[in-house]
Amino acid sequence: MPDDNLSQPVPAYQNLGQTNPVPSSPTTPPIPPEPPFPINIQEKPPSVSPPPSPSPPPPSPPQSGEQAEIIEPFFKKFLPIIIAIGAIILITLIVVKFIIPRFSKPKEPESITLKYWGLWESEGAISQIINDYRQQHPNITIQYIRHSPKDYRERLQSAFAKSEGPDIFRWHNTWLPMLKADLSPLPDTVMSANEYQSTFFPIAQTDAISANKYYGIPLEFDALALYVNKDIFAANPDLKIPTTWDNLRKTANTLTNEDIKGVALGTANNVDHFSDVIGLMILQNGGDPADPDKETVKSALKFYTLFASTDHSWDESMPSSTYAFATAKVAMMFAPSWRAFEIKQLNPELDFKLYPVPQLPGTNITWATYWFEGVSQKSAYQQQAWEFIKYLSSKQVLTKMYNSASQTRLFGEPYSRQDLASGLQEDPYLGAIITQAPSAQSWPLASRTFDNGLNDRLIKYYQDAVNAILDAQPETEIFTALSQGVSQIVSQYKLPSR
To answer: Which of 25, 193, 246, 476 is deepest in the core (most CB within 10 A)?
Structure first.
């Protein structure tokens, strides 16, 4: 701000009241005028010095009215300039303190190390990606450790509790209610909301958000698909791939015989992804898995069990659905894309293809189950960790990771980016996954997350309900127990209503 003392005007004094001396005659010496202030009078005036010149009287100070008349024009003339200077100073302070830091990249520490916990990719598969990143960021070291999915969520949160957890880690798309306190929000300076929404499929925007903040970036996407044994269908040329549940049921009945079952559905103990299928049926039926006492949930559960209780196109005597499909004991099953690796390992000669899941009339809903990369709330380098994850999610890096993984297995992880979807739409395994992505929904009934928490506890209640229906227990007792158990977990984890 300008100094108020410097802004006061200096009075422009004038010689007010000054008079000229009266000229003296040649013979009469001039009489000096009275000095304005007393002076020392000498005893004998100097004889050689000429008489002193008359001194003008000091100017009289201006009266208050005169001073105001002098100062007022000055302010009128310079006040706009003073205001403009003050405004410039204020704007400069705002820009320097608030705007520039928002858009400028923070200076990185001289040397930092980021710990990264992964699940599916080996250290060798991701090492080249890390080396490429270090070419641009030589001060950053990234320690990638692949963990077993068994008890992973518990080990992760235990490490956080002891301040020994990773900076970057992978988490399932249903885990946000459990991990919210451990996750750092994605900074707008790394990726804005608009960029996030235009980059990833809509389901990611739903699963990773809380209070208008995103807490994860997906590097892959996966969903339920209908696995079809092509040889079995080729032997029945009149049958088409079912696209509705009614058609699926009829097709399964047609294919079922003494040697082959039509579809792995109807039970809970030997259908590997029964909870995902039930969740899908409930959502398509307009139900809320968190409120199983409603008819929309009851009818979905009862329809699911028909495949075992009434149709006998599957039963409890069969091995697990994945093994039965791999050994050609069942014509169809439901699973995410990654089950294809296990099937190919069990039976490399099996010819199969993945198709979108059946729908109810007028619906277009599939079931998503996939993973995010997140940053620990306790990380000392949250900005750098998020920047690395964003790098991993770029088109170039995701494509490179996919191509690298495809050289050692059937395919890489399905893309999480919308702008890469077209490259996989014709793939016999991933085409069904990617084409369903825009219509995907989810809820914590996802199998094989090994979380020993939200998913596994909810699945247990639904498993008990399926077994109780197959045992012909009273319906009222079945759904009362299911509702009480589910309600307790929903309340504990504060799950939002659908």
So the answer is: 193
pLDDT at 70 (0 to 100): 52
Q: What are the C-alpha distances in Å from 386 to residues 168, 389, 393?
A: 8, 5, 11
Q: Which amino acid is at 274?
A: F
30-51 as b/e: b if 16+ CB within 10 A: eeeeeeeeeeeeeeeeeeeeee
Q: Is 291 helix (H, G, I), strand (E, B) or coil?
A: coil
Give the Cα separation of 265 and 252 in Å (integer): 10
Distances from the Cα of 279 to the Cα of 222, 225, 428, 445, angstroms: 15, 14, 25, 6
147: closest CA among 131, 133, 165, 174?
165
pLDDT of 23 reads: 40
**Tokens, residue 48:** 């050689």
Per-residue pLDDT, 71: 52
Q: What is the mean pLDDT of residues 146-168?
A: 95
> What gap in Å lies between CA 266 and CA 326, rounded to an integer?
19
Rounded to 5°, the CA angle 487-489-490 comes to 65
CA distance 427 to 434: 9
Q: What does the chain come to in residues?
A: 498
What is the model's pLDDT at position 423? Answer: 94
Burial track 361-371 (b if 16+ CB lie within 10 A, e otherwise): eeeebbbbbbb
Give the lowest-confidence range in 26-40, 273-287, 430-444: 26-40
Euclidean distance between CA atoms 263 and 261, whole angstroms: 6
How many Å apart are CA 267 and CA 467, to the nearest integer?
Answer: 7
Integer angstrom CA distances of residue 215 from 181, 187, 418, 450: 11, 9, 19, 21
Token couple for 49: 């010095």
pLDDT at 109 over 80: no
**Neighbouring C-alpha atoms within 13 Å toward the C-beta of 456:** 12
Under 8 Å between Cβ of 209 and 199: no
403 vs 1, more confident: 403
240 residue type, one letter:
K
Residue 90: pLDDT band (50, 70, 90) is confident
d(CA 277, CA 272): 10
Q: Are 191 and 385 in contact (CB under 8 A)?
A: no
